[in-house]
Amino acid sequence: MAPEIVIERLCNLPANFYGGNKSPIQLVAESGLAQCESALSVEAVSTYISHHPELVEQWLRWSEDKRVSSGWYFMREPNKYVVGYYPKGDTLSFAEALPACAEFVIREVQAIRA
Q1: CA atoms of 59 and 62, how far apart (whole Å)
Q2: Which of 3, 72, 95, 96 could be cross-linked to 39 through a Cys-Cys bond (beta carbons 3.0 to 4.6 Å apart)?
């Protein structure tokens, strides 16, 4: 599978989840990532999201809707965006949404497929 298609499918995971009847695990499995692991990079995700900025809001909503005892989150705070691991883990701060979102997508996809 072409890396561009893998990235498109992974970046659109929230829309495909909310608009369909497949689990996140199924969507990641069907993305083609297993056959093209090198496709998943911050650079590739950032590039795709820069052409589809509405995805940032979709991923923020995805993070807000999660109901887990532990996992990655992505949130907007005054003057910054935060990606972190709940309950006690790494926290990264970003001045802009795009790099924060890309970082969250990478970490979230890796956690889903684990």
Answers
A1: 5
A2: 3
Domain residue limits, the chain: 3-113
* Confidence (pTM): 0.94
Alpha helices in the chain (DSSP H): 3-11, 13-18, 24-30, 42-51, 54-65, 97-113
DSSP 34: G
Distance CA 105, CA 99 (A): 10
* CA torsion angle 110 107 27 70 (round to 10): 90
Amino acid of residue 35: Q
Contact present, 32 and 38 (Cβ < 8 Å): no
pLDDT tens digits, one per residue of 45-79: 999 999 999 999 999 999 999 988 999 999 999 99
What is the rounded CA–CA span in Å between residue 99 and residue 50? 10
Strand partners of residue 76 = 81
> Angle at Cα 1 formed by Cα 26 and Cα 42, nearest 5°?
75
